[in-house]
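Following up on my earlier thread - several people asked me to post the actual chain instead of describing it. Fair enough. Here it is, all 312 residues.
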Amino acid sequence: MKTLKIAIVLILVSGWEAIQAQQEPMYTHYMYNTLVINPGYTGSREALSVTALHRSQWVNYKGAPIVQTLTMHAPLKNDHLGLGLSVTNDKIGPTNNTAVFADFAYIMKLNTKSKLALGLSAGVNIFQADLNSLQLDQQADPSFQNNISNKINPNFGFGAYYSRERFYAGISIPNIIQNNYLVVNLPNGSTWAGKEQRHYYFIAGTMIKLSDNLEFKPTTFVKLTPAAPIQADVTASFVIVKKLLLGVMYRTGDAFGGLIGLDVTSQFHVGYSFDYSYGVKTFKYNNGSHEIVLRYDFNFSNKKQIRSPRYF
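Reply from S.P.:
Thanks for posting it. Predicted structure:
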């Protein structure tokens, strides 16, 4: 019975019921995983930038979310266009969603210090659910009779990203189409549907110089979806001698934690975070969430000098 309750809770979190709840993966390192959140970020790092992230959420909680992302993007030769690719694999209990999206941005120079990029993404979400693996009290429940195998839903997203050397802000809708995962005809004549919900994102951050060897980097990530509470991540980080990052984070109604990062070279960054859930019923049964991020910027051109450091 305990396993069944856990499975049902996780399915509800992932949006299977016809309720309106947040379904997208959460990231503590959202400031390094920006392309997944906003396609307007495409090409903004002035090099071929590759980022890999792994998140294990609610460790020791059976069926808890596990997510991996891989992104790569680069500007084109004229500096006004950016191209990228984003891949996300999100597993929750018996469900697994893999998203593959191509990203495109048109970058406008507003003046010598600031840019505005308008981004589009297009791709597919590939959804699977092993419903037969669940232990049910009522074996004839029609909602769990058939597995879902490689349910492909096309989608597209939009984002606007404004940036200066020490400040950025962006708004985005990563998945505009609200696709159905599954529609079930119930015995009482009604229907039950698992449906994607549209999410609206806002991101912002800045870098404040406190001394030659110490800088303050506050960032935020606000998530909005209909009929669900607004959720905001607020992160306060300090960058020491332009290499070591130490920070704390707070996610409204959910978690708090810490981050550590290191610029191993001017091109390679590695980061780790731990956050602990306090606002959900699962906190008694898990040992927190771990996240690892790796980012590498490739510079193949000897003619173009890349600005260093790149704060975002």
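The first strand starts at residue 48 and ends at 56. That should answer part of your original question.
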